[in-house]
């Protein structure tokens, strides 16, 4: 595949104004699917189910099977609409969206079209430095997810070059809410940052509502990023592209930046932009063409004849409104105060999209400082090296357990980093990794003293210096002991024992 020509980002923004739009798909964590009684793989209890084991006749599109609306999914959808500042429709209707779905047996998707459950809202998001921007929401509508295709026999795992494809219908029929923004203007050079911050805000909202696991690496939350450019001073919107199913906040940011640079190079060279879907490639940091993007008419929407309109009562809407959690901006201010972070420390966590992870780690028993240290430090470093999100590597509970082992003196920080790598590699819990690798700190003074005596015997001049009161010379012995103990010693305790042996305690 030939590489796209790219324009320098700053130059692109001199010539063109970026206009953004996002379609975020949220898988709801109900016990069952949107229109059937089959188990829902978006619920963590079912996540590891074997392929094609969470399937009912309606998910397969078998003749004679009829959909039944999941009441809990409707409640969750209304709560999300309210949290987005939307109006809730007194009556909304499902529709059939028709095009070829190899992973939906009935070959159409039950969605909502001109009568969504929620409409006309907005979300305030916070950018680095404390600046805010309001993202206008056009609608949030209910629908079902498609299944999953696994392409076999190729070198890339994609359909191009594959010999055949396998279909897993477990995800077919999973309840979704699709949140569609209006065009977002005025983001300028911060367009990529706005993209990342918006997805982070949606993730925070759905997690605070408790309606979705919102784990992007599992596909619980996916973003379609729309980007168009228009020449400076022009009112008419440019042709947009839609980068589909981007599954990390880092990737959303990179994909928006890439599309701005790619489209700017084409337009500046006299070319035209094709309205199409595009695929994001994490390994190369590029997008590639998908299919020509259809307009609504091409989907041949018509009302779903097997389902009645959804008509929530005013009492239900009032009940769900009363149960809403804090708004994201209020939530962030509270966390910053509760954790005692400085502005810089809190921004470090927020900009990394790690608020939920740090909060859960603290809830599992870690201090705010230690939770921030792990997530913004070693875990983020490892995630960046692997091109993934920190949350995809390790759970908050494991991080809290790891810190408890450090606090108990079982591990040093250096040993704890080795244990973290073992946890990420799938070797078990932190304690299991410690036991299997034999990484615990040596707490037997007898073993430490033996190592100290060997080090002192090998460095008699250092011993003399310590005995003369030059206690800083103990550093050389500490280093030798730590090396002999393979790092599995408490340096502070080693220093105490060295001074005792040298008669300086």
Folded structure, characterized:
With 505 residues, the chain is of the alpha+beta class. The chain contains 17 helices and 14 strands. The strands form three sheets. Strands 2-5-6-9-1-10-11-12-13 form a nine-stranded mixed β-sheet. A three-stranded antiparallel β-sheet has the order 4-3-14, with no helix packed on it. A hairpin with a 4-residue loop joins β12 (276-281) and β13 (286-292). α4 runs antiparallel to α5 (249-268) and α9 (355-363) crosses α10 (368-386). The longest helix has 20 residues, at 249-268. The termini are far apart.
Helix proportion of residues, in percent? 25-40%
| Biggest β-sheet description | 9 strands, mixed
The helix tally amounts to: 17
Shape: globular
State mean pLDDT (0 to 100 scale): 88
- What separation lies between the terminal Cα atoms? 70 Å
Put the structure in a nutshell.
With 505 residues, the chain is α+β, with helices and mostly antiparallel strands. Helices cover 39% and strands 19% of the residues. The strands form three sheets. The protein has a nine-stranded mixed β-sheet with strand order 2-5-6-9-1-10-11-12-13.
């Amino acid at each position: 595949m030939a590489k796209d020509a790219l324009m320098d980002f700053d130059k692109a923004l001199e010539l063109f104004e970026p206009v953004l739009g996002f379609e975020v798909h949220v898988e709801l964590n109900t016990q069952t699917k949107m229109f059937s009684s089959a188990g829902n793989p978006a619920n963590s209890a079912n996540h590891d189910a074997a392929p094609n084991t969470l399937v009912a006749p309606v998910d397969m599109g078998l003749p004679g099977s009829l959909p039944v609306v999941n009441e809990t999914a409707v409640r969750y959808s209304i709560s999300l609409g309210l949290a987005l500042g939307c109006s809730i429709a007194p009556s909304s209707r499902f529709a059939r969206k028709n095009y070829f779905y190899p992973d939906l047996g009935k070959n159409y998707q039950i969605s909502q079209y001109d009568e969504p459950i929620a409409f006309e809202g907005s979300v305030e998001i916070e950018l680095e430095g404390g600046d805010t921007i309001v993202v206008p929401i056009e609608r949030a509508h209910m629908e079902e997810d498609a299944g999953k295709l696994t392409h076999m026999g190729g070198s890339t795992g994609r359909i191009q070059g594959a010999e055949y494809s396998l279909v897993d219908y477990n995800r077919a029929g999973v309840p979704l809410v699709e949140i569609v923004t209006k065009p977002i203007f005025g983001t300028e050079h911060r367009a990529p940052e706005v993209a990342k911050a918006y997805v982070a805000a949606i993730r925070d909202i759905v997690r605070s509502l408790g309606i979705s696991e919102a784990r992007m690496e599992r596909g619980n939350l996916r973003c379609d990023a729309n980007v168009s450019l228009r020449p400076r001073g022009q009112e008419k919107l440019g042709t947009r592209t839609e980068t589909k199913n981007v599954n990390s906040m880092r990737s959303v940011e990179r994909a928006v930046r890439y599309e701005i640079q790619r489209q700017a190079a084409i337009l500046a060279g006299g070319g035209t932009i094709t309205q199409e879907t595009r695929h994001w490639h994490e390994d190369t940091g590029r997008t590639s063409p998908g299919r020509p993007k259809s307009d609504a008419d091409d989907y041949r929407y018509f009302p779903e004849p097997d389902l009645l309109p959804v008509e929530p009562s005013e009492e239900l809407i009032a009940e769900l409104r009363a149960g809403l959690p804090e708004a994201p901006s209020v939530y962030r201010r509270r966390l910053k105060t509760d954790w005692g972070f400085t502005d810089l420390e809190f921004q470090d966590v927020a900009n990394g999209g790690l608020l939920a992870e740090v909060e859960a780690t603290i809830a599992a028993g870690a201090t705010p400082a230690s939770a921030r240290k792990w997530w913004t430090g070693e875990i983020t470093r490892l995630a960046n090296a692997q091109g993934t999100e920190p949350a995809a590597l390790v759970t908050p509970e494991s991080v809290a357990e790891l810190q408890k082992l450090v606090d108990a003196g079982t591990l040093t920080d250096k040993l704890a980093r080795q244990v973290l790598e073992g946890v990420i590699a799938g070797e078990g819990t932190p304690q299991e990794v410690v036991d299997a690798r034999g990484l615990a700190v040596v707490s037997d003074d007898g073993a430490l003293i033996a190592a100290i005596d060997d080090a002192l015997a090998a460095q008699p001049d250092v011993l003399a210096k310590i005995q003369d009161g030059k206690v800083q010379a103990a550093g050389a012995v500490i280093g030798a002991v730590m090396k002999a103990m393979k790092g599995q010693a408490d340096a502070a305790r080693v220093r105490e024992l060295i001074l005792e042996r040298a008669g300086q305690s």
